Amino acid sequence: MSGQLLAQMLDRAAQPFAKQHRPECEYRYEEAKVKHVLYWCTIGGTSVSSPLIASTFALAGGANGVEYPARTLYENQVKSPGSLHDVTTGSNGECTKPFSETGLSGCTTAEEAKSCASKAICVAGTGYDGPTGVGTPDGIAAFKPLPNPPTVSSVSPASGTVTGGTPITITGTGFVAGATVEIAQGNGAGPTAIPASKVVVVSPTEITATTGGPAIAGTWNLFVIDSGETSLANTGDYYTYQ
User: Fold this and answer.
1) Among 45, 46, 52, which residue's Cα sits nearest to residue 7?
2) CA torsion, points 182, 183, 186, 188, in degrees to nearest 10?
3) What is the pLDDT, as a whole number, of residue 96?
4) Are the C-beta atoms of residues 195 and 210 closer than 8 Å to each other?
5) What is the 3 state secondary structure string of the chain?
6) What is the block-wise mean pLDDT of the chain (242 residues), using blocks of 10 residues?
7) Are 149 and 232 in contact (CB under 8 A)?
8) How far is CA 155 from the centre of its chain?
């Protein structure tokens, strides 16, 4: 399971986010005021990275049915950039020098990059890049799928007076408490739309409301807005002001 998940996430260039593939293990001690650093093992690669990724998704509640979990990271990079730390330095290059006593690489970024500079996935930079993907996660927020927008499949009755005051029933999916309803006036949802009143979320698939007014006569899209998401316009959400 974890290997398959990692394979999906590595499908885009090198990787969707930064993780350490082959970290060096160190044993440090001081004797007679002389510091010693012994390198005694290497742990890394897919065997470490894949369970770390899978366990982080588990802490976030699982992939929640997303076919390719990497999509969640890319969506959060755009809509919730604070859930990730952008890694802008480093490379996939090789360093043959030992680590310093502080645990830092013995090579500069430029020195490491020499071995892979001809490859597009070599050097990290601002935004998505080959070596570090979308960066490193800030907690588990980046692994939580963004809520799907609500959908509207029908409005009944589908017409009423331009003065408003018509009780309507809206059916669809993804309705949550606190949802609002607007009827567009030619420019989509937003400031120019007419808000409905007495909005009651009866269930995740049903809302009752009363149309607002005055409105411009015509057939317009009705929108449901909840959790910061707005339903997409379709022929099932038409409402006609007469």
Assistant:
1) 46
2) 30
3) 85
4) no
5) CHHHHHHHHCCCCCCCECCCCCCEEEEEEEECCEEEEEEEEECCCHHHHHHHHHHHHHHCCCCCCCCCCHHHHHHHHHHCHHHEECCCCCECCCCCCCCCCCCCCCCCHHHHHCCCCCCCCCECCCCCECCCECCEECCCHHHCCCCCCCEEEEEECCEECCCCCCEEEEEEECCCCCCEEEECCCCCCCCCCEECEEEEEEECCEEEEECCCCCCCEEEEEEEEECCEECCCCHHHEEEEC
6) 40 52 56 68 70 90 84 86 87 82 79 80 83 86 87 98 98 95 93 96 97 97 91 96 98
7) yes
8) 31
Dist. CA 21–CA 14, nearest whole Å: 12
Look-up of token digits 């809520």: 147
Residue ranges and CATH numbers for the domains of the chain are 2-143 (no CATH), 151-241 (2.60.40.10)
228/3 Cα distance (integer angstroms): 34
Contact criterion met (CB below 8 Å) for 73 and 16: yes
Tokens coding 145: 């799928």
What is the pLDDT, as a whole number, of residue 218?
97
CA–CA separation, 65 vs 141, rounded Å? 17
Compute the C-alpha angle 139/145/151, nearest 5°.
Answer: 150
Kindly report the number of other CB atoms within 10 A of residue 200's CB atom. Answer: 11
Alpha carbon distance 188, 222 (integer Å): 9
Spatial CB neighbours of 81, under 8 Å, sequence gap ≥ 6:
none
